Amino acid sequence: MKRRMLVSSLEGGEFFLECEDSLEAVEFTPLEERLRVESPGLMEGMSRLKAAMGEDDFQKYINSLLKMMRHEDKMLLITGSAINKSIIELKFLKLLAESFGIKNIRIFSQTC
Q1: Which residues, 6 or more positions from 80, have their beta carbon under 8 angstroms from its beta carbon?
Q2: 39 pLDDT above the threshold of 90
Q3: pLDDT digits (tens, 9 = 90+) for 51-71
Q4: In this structure, which topology does domain 26-109 adopt according to CATH?
Q5: What is the mean pLDDT of the chain?
Q6: Contact of 50 with 58, CB cutoff 8 Å
Q7: Rounded distance, CA 105 to CA 97, Å?
Q8: What is the C-alpha separation between 64 and 7, in angstroms, rounded?
Q9: Would you call 79 exposed, middle or buried from its count of C-beta atoms within 10 A (0-12, 13-18, 19+)?
Q10: What pLDDT shows up at residue 28?
Q11: pTM higher than 0.85 for the full model?
């Protein structure tokens, strides 16, 4: 079933958008798998990080990240858990910096 939604733009215009009246669930893909396709330049650092952290910690705290982005010597991580954010900050910041050759890391928690 389709429905019409009225959408307003920042410029003051309005238009109707036809959309499906349903939601689709998408299975979570581990970060390492997504980066192979989206950001292959990060894979060398990921391999070093995985070796330094160990498989269990890597899977729990890094492979579960929602997003990892790098620009020059800066990195942004987005996690779905405030607890994981804290643990990464306490235990793995130095390993992240060394593995990717970065100086500045920001971690955000996107919790619902």
Answers
A1: 64, 66, 109, 110, 111
A2: yes
A3: 999 999 999 999 999 999 999
A4: GMP Synthetase; Chain A, domain 3 (3.30.300)
A5: 92
A6: yes
A7: 8
A8: 34
A9: buried
A10: 92
A11: no
